[in-house]
Write a sequence for this structure.
């Protein structure tokens, strides 16, 4: 059971790693917005599921991680919409630089 | 309780998350413009939250869950405030 949980965490960490790699390697801002969302959606979901499974296997039923999951699912789109709008306006007013 | 393979997989996951944080920090230092840096900061705190959750699993302690929850909440507030500042020039209108 703990092995399955650890593998879930490993898969989530791999997604977060690839997302950050994309953030580092892409050329323009509007390309760079996309890769980190892999880590914030499926990566976080896998790590949280792994953590729940791990502590459920160790002691008793643990579901607290759903709280973080709901919070991240609700807040990440808000952040990226605000950031994308700010970037769009700044790039239009002052391209290049 | 903890099998050796599970601890090995968790160590590998922590290495990957630390590398992801290093990449995000690199973009934070390099990012040509301010919104690139805010995006890098957002990625950095999400990776830090996942790393802290995995530390909680390795040390079999539930206390790390609260830390991750607080990092998630404060990270959202800070990134939203920074994006709002870039958008309008002031945080609260």
């Amino acid at each position: 059971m703990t092995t399955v949980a650890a593998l879930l965490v490993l898969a989530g960490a791999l997604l977060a790693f690839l997302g950050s790699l994309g953030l580092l390697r892409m050329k323009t801002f509007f390309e760079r917005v996309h890769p980190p969302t892999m880590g914030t959606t499926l990566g976080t979901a896998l790590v949280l599921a792994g953590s729940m499974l791990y502590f459920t296997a160790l002691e008793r039923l643990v579901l607290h991680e759903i709280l973080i999951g709901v919070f991240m699912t609700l807040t990440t789109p808000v952040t990226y919409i605000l950031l994308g709008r700010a970037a769009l306006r700044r790039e239009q007013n002052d391209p290049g630089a | 309780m903890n099998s050796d393979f599970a601890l090995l997989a968790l160590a590998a996951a922590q290495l990957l998350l630390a590398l992801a944080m290093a990449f995000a920090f690199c973009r934070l230092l390099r990012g040509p413009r301010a919104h690139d840096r805010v995006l890098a900061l957002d990625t950095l705190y999400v990776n830090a939250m996942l790393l802290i959750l995995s530390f909680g699993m390795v040390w079999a302690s539930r206390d790390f869950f609260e830390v991750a929850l607080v990092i998630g909440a404060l990270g959202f507030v800070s990134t939203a405030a920074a994006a709002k500042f870039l958008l309008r020039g002031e945080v609260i209108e």
